[in-house]
């Protein structure tokens, strides 16, 4: 029987919640011994390039174009090979949303690694965003018929997209093909673990943000026993170390469930269970930009432990935003304001009279985000609204 997780309280203008966390490791992770990795000076964001493109991949012997966002250092010495990482998204509860996926929502994760000198690639798996093909990661015909075997198969289906993207990345002359990572959020984290149970050449580690499958609504799962069975199946043959990042206020995969998965998993793994996140009630949003201060140290330690390049010192970035809200917002508007401050850049918040508001984030540019925020705020009746904030700048 699961325990219902109470929502994290959010107090505007008050101190953020404690960043305390619980850490567990498997025996195989404690036994891991790696060489001292290369360390570089952290790159500023202005030293990075960003390009949205397609990866020409082959999956199951068939060609597929996968929608991709590549963020990488601008400059490189000739012949200097860099580590590479493939990052991918979760699975929306409503599959009708899969084509609405925006890769820029994950650009901060790609930047985190590009600033460490990586070539970072965010992909949309088949059937999502602009990627070709049909969604292939389903675990059952319906929630009621979900099984452990179905979950296991679903993870392997998503893993094929990761493997195809890694193959393309390994062929990039800028990339060291023996220094590859994957990072996945939610269903993408689950697929990453599946991939690493039978890893392609060069895969050195996996980062799993809030990974799992089968959450049809808050604090429920189609088959808790079946999902634990799938994690156990992946762990039995797991050949690459993994970092698990979760929050105790996650409404998709709550702590008791995550600890059960971790105990079932026998591969080399480290679990960080964080407390309430900083800008949202649902801890499933742990991956968002506003929570970087929580999980960046865990990623740094993991990279050092597996012998992968990182920075010599983390960048002195500004802390999480906790600004006073625009005047006149009601309870829903105040909650939206807090969530906005933790969201991805390419964001804007608009306000109007009588508490009207609208916002958007994770767009290719702040100009596009401003258009979206104004449209939402104005509504069908075209109420007058103005842009209040873009990215981190007040208008």
Question: Helices, strands, pairings?
Answer:
Blueprint: E1 21-25, H1 27-30, E2 39-40, E3 48-59, E4 62-73, E5 82-88, H2 107-114, E6 119-123, H3 148-170, E7 175-185, H4 187-196, E8 203-209, H5 224-236, E9 242-247, H6 255-264, E10 269-274, H7 292-305, E11 310-311, H8 331-341, E12 348-352, E13 357-360, H9 366-378, E14 385-390, E15 393-394
β-strand percent reads 15-25%
Radius of gyration: 21 Å
Could you tell me the mean pLDDT?
Answer: 91
* Approximate shape: globular
Structural class: alpha/beta
Q: Specify the biggest β-sheet.
A: 9 strands, mixed
Number of strands: 15
Strand order of the largest sheet: 1-10-9-8-7-5-6-4-3
Question: Can you give a write-up of this model?
Answer:
With 395 residues, the chain is α/β, with parallel strands linked by helices. The protein is built from 9 helices and 15 strands. A 9-stranded mixed β-sheet has the order 1-10-9-8-7-5-6-4-3, sandwiched between helices. Strands 13-12-14-15 form a 4-stranded antiparallel β-sheet, sandwiched between helices.
């Amino acid at each position: 029987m699961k325990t219902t997780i109470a929502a994290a309280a959010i107090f505007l203008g008050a101190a953020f919640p404690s960043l305390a966390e619980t850490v567990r490791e498997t025996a195989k992770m404690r036994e891991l011994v790696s060489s001292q990795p290369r360390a570089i000076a952290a790159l500023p964001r202005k030293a990075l390039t960003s390009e949205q493109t397609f990866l020409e991949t082959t999956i199951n012997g068939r060609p597929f174009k996968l929608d991709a966002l590549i963020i990488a250092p601008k400059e490189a010495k000739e012949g200097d090979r860099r580590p590479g990482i493939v990052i991918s998204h979760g699975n929306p509860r409503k599959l009708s949303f899969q084509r609405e996926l925006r890769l820029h929502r994950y650009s901060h994760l790609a930047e985190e690694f590009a600033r460490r000198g990586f070539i970072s690639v965010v992909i949309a798996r088949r059937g999502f965003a602009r990627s070709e093909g049909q969604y292939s990661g389903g675990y059952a015909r319906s929630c009621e018929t979900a099984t452990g075997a179905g979950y296991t198969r679903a993870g392997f289906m998503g893993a094929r997209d990761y493997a195809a993207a890694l193959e393309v990345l390994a062929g990039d002359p800028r990339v060291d093909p023996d220094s590859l990572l994957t990072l996945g959020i939610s269903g993408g984290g689950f697929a990453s673990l599946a991939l690493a149970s039978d890893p392609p050449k060069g895969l050195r580690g996996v980062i799993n943000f809030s990974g799992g499958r089968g959450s049809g609504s808050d604090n429920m799962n189609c088959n808790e026993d079946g999902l634990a069975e799938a994690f156990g199946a992946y762990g039995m043959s797991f050949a690459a170390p993994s970092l698990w990042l979760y929050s105790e206020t996650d409404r998709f995969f709550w702590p008791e469930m995550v600890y059960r998965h971790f105990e079932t998993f026998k591969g080399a793994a480290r679990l960080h269970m964080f407390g309430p996140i900083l800008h949202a009630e649902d801890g499933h949003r742990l991956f968002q930009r506003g929570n970087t201060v929580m999980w960046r140290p865990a990623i740094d330690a993991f990279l050092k432990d597996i012998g992968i390049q990182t920075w010599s010192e983390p960048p002195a970035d500004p802390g999480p935003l906790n600004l006073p809200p625009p005047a006149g917002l009601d309870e829903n508007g105040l909650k939206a304001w807090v969530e906005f401050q933790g969201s991805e850049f390419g964001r804007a918040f608009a306000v109007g009279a009588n508490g009207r508001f609208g916002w958007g984030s994770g767009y290719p540019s702040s100009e596009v985000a401003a258009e979206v925020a104004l449209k939402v705020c104005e509504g069908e009746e075209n109420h007058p609204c103005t842009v209040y904030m873009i990215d981190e700048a007040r208008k």
